[in-house]
Automatic annotation (TrEMBL):
Keyword annotations of the record: Aminoacyl-tRNA synthetase, ATP-binding, Cytoplasm, Ligase, Nucleotide-binding, Protein biosynthesis
EC numbers: 6.1.1.22
Subunit-structure text: Homodimer.
SUPFAM superfamilies, per database record: Class II aaRS and biotin synthetases (SSF55681), Nucleic acid-binding proteins (SSF50249)
Protein name listed in UniProt: Asparagine--tRNA ligase
Entry annotated with the keyword Iron: no
Molecular-function GO terms, alphabetical: ligase activity
Gene name per UniProt: asnS
Domain annotation Aminoacyl-transfer RNA synthetases class-II family profile: ranges: 143-438
Similarity remark: Belongs to the class-II aminoacyl-tRNA synthetase family.
Length: 448
């Protein structure tokens, strides 16, 4: 059989032709003279149909019967090379099916553990290496890929250079309680929580820069939004105002959503995501509101029927019920700006004339997906940054390189970081972050 294969997602370009497809058998049904195979090749799923009389006609009685029998006995996840004629099929969601003319078994599969029946999450997570083959998980990975692709595309088009921050580090980027520590030839080292501090050095060297890589947080949170290892894209840019920074973030998030609509529409359909809603997020402006105004709103509405959050005091950080309520109230992604300095990182620049608040923003996604971006303007003044670090009792000798950036031609600069998995869950419309990364690492999970 010819070895040059066609992807299932591309069969629409081969209607009426005989093609060869390398695939796995996801499921099988039929009776008597007819067999139906659900074929999967990583690009999509579609149905192949084998009709016994056709096989006898083509291969003769003996060989034709043997081939048909092989098809009827195929077990789940057997890998095959299937030859057949592509037909349009209005009845199926996918729109095409394959009239099978020949088949070769490539790899056998016996007792595949994930059967078409329902399985519990723990079982599926234990079999994550196989669960990835299912229709929904495949769609999640395709959406993740489209988001990564759109990230590189957006930054390239906007004059950014990819600047790779280290993963092993001698200091904490965000907060020392969440660090994974490791031994580095007899000295402690930490797994990066964010590339930001190094990226600031990159911005002073190269202008607009971004990084994209795995980051690690020893968070004991057991929520559907937290991983201990996740992928973050950070961007950093000199000579900008806070408003310009928010404009860039908004354009970026819109480009990601549009990128998924353009490159992974089939995956969104598989997940039954409401694409009208995604279109709305692309076309309508995002909301921008300050922390203090949000506190007013939350306090004003706390007795409302739909307000299932607890009373919040000014100065407190939001819990996810507060974030969910606020972003749903506006119905579009919402930037909450100027949080209290006391609940944000040491490097954030105070709001002019209000040292209690900092020039920062969290972007909250609607529909309960929570914070997808954290960003801020950075304190660019050497003396002010030193004073802040002293106030927090930080060891400045650990941050010499960072302070140097304020000594030699410091400029106003800012940036942001997006958790790619949070963005994937939001665009995909899937509530749990564990499905947004191939092999999730969480509080009680590090295998497989
Ligand atoms: O808000 P965070 O902590 O911001 C920073 O790390 C900054 N240094 C970024 C910057 O300004 N360059 O994290 C950024 C984003 C969050 O908005 C969220 O989307 C994601 O990272 N995130 C997580 N995603 C999954 N699991 C976790 N445990 C996460 N913690 C943060
Ligand atoms: Mg944050």
């Amino acid at each position: 059989m010819s070895k040059k294969t066609v992807s299932i997602i591309d069969v629409k370009n081969h209607v009426g032709e005989e093609v060869t497809i390398g695939a796995w058998v996801a499921n099988k049904s039929g009776k008597g003279k007819i067999a139906f195979l659900q074929l999967r090749d990583g690009s999509a799923f579609f149905q192949g149909v084998a009709f016994k009389p056709n096989f006898i006609e083509k291969f003769g009685e003996e060989e034709g019967l043997a081939k048909f029998d092989t098809i009827k006995k195929l077990s789940q996840e057997t890998s095959v090379l299937v030859k057949g004629i592509v037909k349009e099929d209005e009845r199926s969601k996918f729109g095409y099916e394959l009239d099978i003319t020949d088949i070769d078994i490539i790899g056998a599969s016996t007792d595949y553990p994930i059967t078409p029946k329902e399985h519990g999450t723990d079982f599926l997570m234990d079999n994550r290496h196989l669960w990835l083959r299912s229709r929904k998980q495949m769609a999640m990975m395709q959406i993740r890929n489209a988001i990564i692709y759109a990230t590189y595309d957006f930054f390239d088009q906007n004059g950014f250079i990819k600047f790779d921050s280290p993963i092993l580090s001698g200091n904490a980027a965000e907060d020392s309680t969440e660090l994974f520590e490791t031994d580095y030839f007899g000295n402690p080292a930490f797994l990066s929580q964010s590339g930001q501090l190094y990226l600031e050095a990159g911005a002073m060297a190269l202008g607009r820069v971004f990084d994209f890589g795995p980051v690690f947080r020893a968070e004991k949170s057991k929520t559907r939004r937290h991983l201990t290892e996740f992928w973050m894209m950070d961007a950093e840019y000199p000579f900008v105002s806070h408003e310009e920074s928010l404009d860039l973030q908004e354009a970026y998030v819109k480009a990601l959503i549009q990128g998924v609509l353009d490159r992974a529409l089939h995956a969104l359909e598989v997940l039954e995501r409401d694409t009208d809603l995604l279109q709305k997020y692309v076309s309508e402006p995002f909301k921008r509101i300050s922390y203090d105004e949000v506190i007013d709103l939350l306090q004003e509405h706390e007795k409302d029927a739909d307000a299932d959050y607890e009373h919040i005091e000014r100065g407190d950080d939001f819990g996810s019920p507060h974030e969910t309520w606020v972003s749903n109230y506006f119905g579009v992604p919402t930037f909450v700006t100027n949080y209290p300095a006391a609940i944000k990182a040491f490097y954030m620049k105070p709001v002019p004339g209000n040292p209690e608040r900092v020039l920062c923003a969290d972007l909250l996604a609607p529909e309960g997906y929570g914070e997808i971006i954290g960003g801020s303007m950075r304190e660019e003044d050497y003396d002010a940054l030193v004073a802040k670090m002293d106030e927090l009792g930080m060891d400045k000798s650990e941050y010499e390189f960072y302070l140097d950036l304020r000594k030699y031609g410091s400029v106003p600069h800012g940036g942001f970081g997006i958790g790619i998995e949070r963005m994937v869950t939001f665009v995909a419309g899937t509530k749990h972050i564990r499905e947004a990364i191939p092999f999730p690492r969480m509080l009680h999970r590090i295998k497989p």
